């Protein structure tokens, strides 16, 4: 006969087994749902600013740098840790062009201030201060995500301008697919972030081939034909290091001069 203590243990064991089964099912569903999101966050876009990663496309472990790099597993709250962006000085109804003069060729980027006023205003402010001059495009990804990441004054994925700006135009690429991703077309230019909302700084990525990512990165511009050709040539040369699909570009890219002009 089963005594009360044995019965109690049996019930506890059955309860534990049910819990483990439910957890396994939840993990399986999460993995399937986030296949693209997870791969993106593990490869691309994190941006630093005290601890940016272009998570970076993000950050580390649970949040390791979407152009991510090494950002903290628990990034600080932008509202608590960083001041707001620069004062609005641009014409939000106008269009602007950012020109990046690099050692590999000029990259022209058409920007729409009506859709991304804070982003355009920030780049205008930063380029007027020569913030990007002499900086390197520190990260190239050529597998799953196809981007060249730039805009870090430190050149290692951890730098930023000392402030954050709001996300903008996140629905500009259309409705996400069932897997939660949207396509950032070749030629797109978007903001990197720490994996948290409204955490963009100065890092951005240049898409040289259609790339699926979560709609978490502000798309604010489009490269001209020559600019896209330049980035594709850099990508074709590959990356340095053991990780063949993610690392500093073999063909080093330095932004010699960055400007933003009203068109």
From TrEMBL:
The chain crosses the membrane at residues 35-55. Keywords: Isomerase, Membrane, Transmembrane, Transmembrane helix. The keyword Cytoplasm does not apply. Residues 1-30, 62-87, 239-263 are annotated as: Disordered. SUPFAM superfamilies: Cyclophilin-like (SSF50891). One of its GO terms (molecular function) is isomerase activity. PPIases accelerate the folding of proteins. It catalyzes the cis-trans isomerization of proline imidic peptide bonds in oligopeptides. PANTHER family: PEPTIDYL-PROLYL CIS-TRANS ISOMERASE B-RELATED (PTHR45625:SF3), PEPTIDYL-PROLYL CIS-TRANS ISOMERASE-RELATED (PTHR45625). This is Peptidylprolyl isomerase. It comes from Streptomyces niveus.
